[in-house]
Write a structure and sequence with these properties.
The structure is a single chain. This protein is an alpha/beta fold. The protein has helices at 41-60, 74-88, 104-116, 127-142, 154-157, 162-165, 183-188, 212-224, 240-243, 247-251, 277-289, 298-310, 315-335, 361-375, 403-406, 410-430, and strands spanning 63-64, 120-124, 146-148, 170-172, 195-199, 228-232, 256-260, 271-275, 342-344, 352-357, 377-378, 395-400. Strands 2-8-7-6-5-3-4 form a seven-stranded mixed β-sheet, sandwiched between helices. It is globular, with a radius of gyration of 21 Å. Residues 1-38 have low confidence and may be disordered.
């Protein structure tokens, strides 16, 4: 029996994904199944061959639905950066040196603060570093190193417990349900905490967001508990349509906000930490201590500026299109007679969502490759098992709707979904 309703999710954390594995950026790993080498060179070689085969299949496909699965060569990425660069920044200006704020890094920081409506922003080489710095600053200011966060948050799942091992913080969980915490759960926490960290959207639960009134109530509850609020907003850029609010209105709820430049904006790397001038100045000091004062970072900054120009205005269109894409996939899989599947959320909260099927990831990845190789259609990215907290015998993939999806009609998506189901059946029979 298929299930596509995003409700009824409070029963546990079956949405937990890859455990402590590396983050799969934007839901598209470009590889085949996870590397299961177990230290054996043969396993590494098999995984490499599978990864290269899938990469070649994506590159050879005539049409690709999810954004980000068709990888670029170094030359292609350099060519794209060079094409975008003149419109993004004056290329006759000097390169940055240790993030000097009178050059390209400073321009990116000012543009980011302007987009978020904050007093200031600081560029960081990674989001992991930015979040640790933010929470460490708040621990020092509040005198409480305990952070209220979600067990499915990026900090818990994808950062090797850096917040605890490196920064000496402690995490408590208002809820384990695969959704953001409610105000009641914040009030019910049995111990004090210095900061509440909210991931918006909560990626590993299906890129889910609360309603606006739920978010404001949760923030108010944290304030009533005398805690500060930090937004893990790696993908905050695309949350406006769901909330019906502007980015400055959303960011104004928090004391600090982290955003990513390569998630959603298509940058090379990098992140920003935004807030008051005083907070950002302290964050810059900790950035240096954490090793984030790199000699030159202008390529990442240039790509981020191009992303702010090119992708940020397009995100509402991607979010709107994601609803139709999710519905067409649902209808196509149902028409194919797939006995059980899940499109989650049924109506995506952002331009990203999950698809679940009751098959091993290796089988589904083989079907992805065969469909791309034989028909020139790449409907899905990488599939993977949801980890030990998830139900056995299922795998999921993440769909990111971007420019590549805009050229697909709903009928074409439904047809490709039916076709994919046939490839799955074919792989099962052979296997």
């Amino acid at each position: 029996m298929r299930e596509t309703d995003g409700r009824g999710m409070d029963g546990g954390s079956w949405g937990a994904s890859r455990g402590a594995s590396a983050d799969v950026s934007d839901g598209a790993s470009g590889g085949a199944s996870a590397d299961v080498s177990d230290g054996a060179s043969g396993g590494v070689e098999v995984a490499r061959v599978e990864r290269e085969r899938m990469r070649a299949a994506y590159r050879g496909a005539r049409r690709v639905l999810p954004e980000g699965v068709r990888k670029e060569t170094v030359r292609e990425r350099l060519d794209r950066l060079a094409a975008d660069a003149p419109a993004a920044y004056d290329l006759d200006s000097w390169t940055d040196v240790y993030g000097n704020d009178d050059g390209i890094i400073g321009e990116l920081e000012r543009r980011t603060a302007g987009a978020l409506g904050t007093e200031a922003a600081a560029f960081f080489p990674t989001g992991t570093m930015a979040q640790q710095v933010a929470l460490r600053c708040w621990a020092g200011r509040t005198g409480n190193a305990t952070v209220a966060g979600h067990p499915l948050s990026h900090m818990e799942v994808h950062e090797r417990d850096a917040w605890a091992v490196v920064s000496g913080l402690r995490m408590v969980h208002p809820t384990s349900a695969p959704r953001p915490p409610t105000a009641a759960e914040i009030y019910d926490l049995p111990e004090p905490f210095g900061a509440l960290a909210l991931e918006l959207p909560l990626r590993d639960a299906g890129f889910v967001l609360p309603a606006w009134d739920e978010l404001t109530a949760t923030v108010e509850a944290a304030r009533d508990r005398e805690a500060v609020v930090h937004f893990d907003g790696a993908r905050l850029w695309e949350c406006g349509p769901h909330f019906g609010r502007t980015l400055p209105e959303i960011a104004a709820l928090a004391d600090s906000v982290y955003v990513s430049y390569y998630k959603s904006l298509g940058g090379i790397s990098g992140a920003a930490l935004a807030g008051t001038e005083e907070f950002v100045e302290e964050a810059r000091a900790w950035r240096h201590r954490y090793g984030g004062q790199l000699f030159q970072q202008w390529p990442a900054a240039l790509a981020a500026l191009a992303g702010l120009d090119r992708e940020l205005p397009r995100l509402p269109e991607y979010v709107a299109r994601a609803e139709a894409v999710a519905r067409a996939l649902d209808e196509g899989l149902a028409e194919a007679g797939v006995p059980w599947f899940r499109v989650h959320p049924a109506v995506p909260h952002t331009h990203q969502f999950q698809v679940w099927l009751p098959h091993p990831a290796e089988l589904l990845n083989e079907a992805v490759v065969r469909q791309a190789e034989e028909t020139g259609t790449a409907l899905f990215g990488n599939w993977y098992e949801p980890g030990p907290a998830g139900p056995p015998g299922v795998a999921l993939t993440e769909i990111t709707v971007g420019t590549s999806a805009l050229g697909w009609t709903d009928d074409a998506i439904r047809s490709a979904a039916r076709e994919f189901a046939d490839f799955v059946d074919g792989v099962r029979r052979v296997g």
